[in-house]
Structure formats: C-alpha cells, structure tokens
Design a protein that fits this description.
The protein has 15 helices and 2 strands. The radius of gyration is 18 Å and the shape is globular. α10 runs parallel beside α15. By secondary structure, it is mostly helical. It starts with 6 loop residues before the first helix and ends with a helix.
Length: 296
C-alpha cells in the first residue's frame, strides 16, 4: 500500500519490479529470431496501466504477490500481442508504436504475426507455473484473461471496429464496441488482482464497476488525445482514426462532451470504490485520476 510513499514513488517502485519480472519471462532464445521480435514488442515501453491495475488491486486486497506479478505480466503480454496484430497492414496499418517502428515494420509481417501468437500463448504459460499459485487460482486467472481477450471481448471488439469504418454509430453501439475492444481487458486486470486475494461479494461487484468505468474512460481519453496531441507526444500516429473514417467518442459526441464523459466515468469509478467496503482504495483512486488526466 501507499503508506508514507507518494503515488509517483509507488508507481516507479512497482514498475521497476514489473519490468524485471517481465524481462525474465520473455525468452530471448526463442528460435529463428522470434524471441527478439517478442521482446521488441513488449519490453521497454508503454503506459503499463494494466499491470498497475492488477498490482494495485492485489495490494488493496492483500493478495498473493507471485500470482499478482504473474497476472500483471500475462495481461501486458496479451495487450502487447494485440497491438502487434492491430498495427499490421491487414488491420489498422500503422508504422509507429510506443515511439518506435511497429513490430511488422522492424521484423516483417510473418515474424510479427508469430511474435503476437507466441506472446498470447506465453501469457497463459505465465499464469500456470508448477508451484506458487494454487491450481484453482490458476484456473480463475486464466478464465478471466481468456474471456476478456477472446471473441466476446478484445478480439470481438476489434472485429466490430473494422466493420464500422465509414459508418455512423450511435453512442450505445460505440460504447459496446469499446467495452469489448479496450474496456474488458482493463476490467479483467482489476478482477485478476482481486482474485489474488480475499474479498467479499460487495467488494468484487464494486471493483467490477470500477474496472468497467476505468476501461471506458481510458478509450474516451484515447479518442480525445488522438485529435488534440501530435504523434511525438503520443508515441503513435496521431489522427489515425479520423483519417481512416472510424467512429470515435469525439466524432460521435464532440470534443467537450467527450471530456465531460471521461470525468463522469472517473467519478463513477471512485463512487464504486467508496461503496466497496475495502479499507484503503487510494491506489485505485489515483490510478483512476491518472487515466483521465494523462496527456499521452
């Protein structure tokens, strides 16, 4: 927990431990250069919000530290694999990610596809070590991650996104798309952290609401930044959705209403924490603020 530490100090300390764990788990020696492509895709970059949500929630519920750290690594592996595939010419066709060339630009399309495939498999390998995590908890963590990443979650949301290019969507349809594509993996990060510890039904339900609100707020802010920041700040190509004629919260609602929605979702997340009955939710409250206040 925070104790006397600042949020910035907690974040730096937590991410240092996370980066060391992730570096240890992603194999450099995978054959034919595959390990190099995997490590390029997932190490040394990104906001790491999903791992922070896992680890903050686990700390909030006094969770199993090994299970939490491995869950944090697994979630980031799934996120990184999705970015590698999304950036490819057959999907969003982008050349810049995390301030450097996308994986397919650096290694070729075939190697990038395989790197994504390998990271997806590695995520579940990470969650199922031979010891340190009880089998029932391994199964629960795998189920949470798989459901968030699959046809009903991230992959399904991306399918809707690709099918929506050039179409007008209402806010409800846009919300459903982004709940699947972005929100469910962020929500799963919270719930995986919660699964690592002990908390009652009320706390679990409110953490689920918190995760859903944060997941949607993240995407709303992403859409805002896409039209208000440049590529150098974002570390990815700015204005890409607008150029591709994709529906976003800014195109559907307008810039100021989108900003208002992000603030509303942050307030909803904090209200859920207040209703959770958990003793100390400051880490999760500050993470909610960081989602809405970020500039990249």
């Amino acid at each position: 927990m925070l104790g006397s530490k600042t949020f910035e100090a907690w974040t730096a300390e937590t991410l240092n431990a996370f980066e060391r764990a992730l570096d240890d788990l992603v194999p450099a020696a995978a054959p034919a250069g595959l390990g190099e492509a995997m490590r390029y895709a997932v190490l040394g970059g990104g906001k790491r919000l999903r791992p922070l949500l896992v680890l903050a929630t686990s700390e909030t519920v006094s969770g199993n530290a090994l299970a939490a750290m491995r869950s944090a690594c697994a979630v980031e592996l799934i996120h990184a694999y999705s970015l590698v595939h999304d950036d490819m010419p057959c999907m969003d066709d982008d050349v810049l990610r995390r301030g450097k060339p996308t994986t397919h630009v650096q290694f070729g399309e075939a190697q990038a596809m395989l790197a994504g495939d390998a990271m997806q498999a590695l995520a579940f390998e990470v969650l199922t070590p031979d010891d340190g995590i009880p089998p029932a908890l391994q199964a629960r963590l795998c189920a949470l991650l798989a459901r968030a990443a699959g046809h009903a979650g991230m992959a399904g949301g991306q399918a809707i996104d690709l099918a929506s290019i050039g179409k007008k969507l209402d806010e409800a349809t846009l919300r459903d798309m982004h709940r699947r594509k972005t929100g469910l993996l962020l929500q799963a990060s919270v719930m995986m952290g919660a699964a690592c510890g002990q908390c009652g039904e009320q706390a679990l339900r409110q953490l689920e609401i918190y995760g859903a609100a944060i997941g949607l707020a993240f995407q709303v802010v992403d859409d805002i930044l896409d039209v208000t920041q440049d590529s150098a700040v974002l570390g990815k190509t700015a204005g890409k959705d607008q150029d591709a004629n994709k529906p976003t919260y800014v195109s559907v609602l307008g810039l100021e209403p989108a900003r208002h929605l992000a603030d509303e979702l942050c307030a909803e997340a904090k209200a859920a924490l207040a209703a959770s009955g958990l003793a100390d939710t400051r880490l999760l409250e500050l993470l909610a603020d960081s989602v809405v206040e970020r500039d990249s």
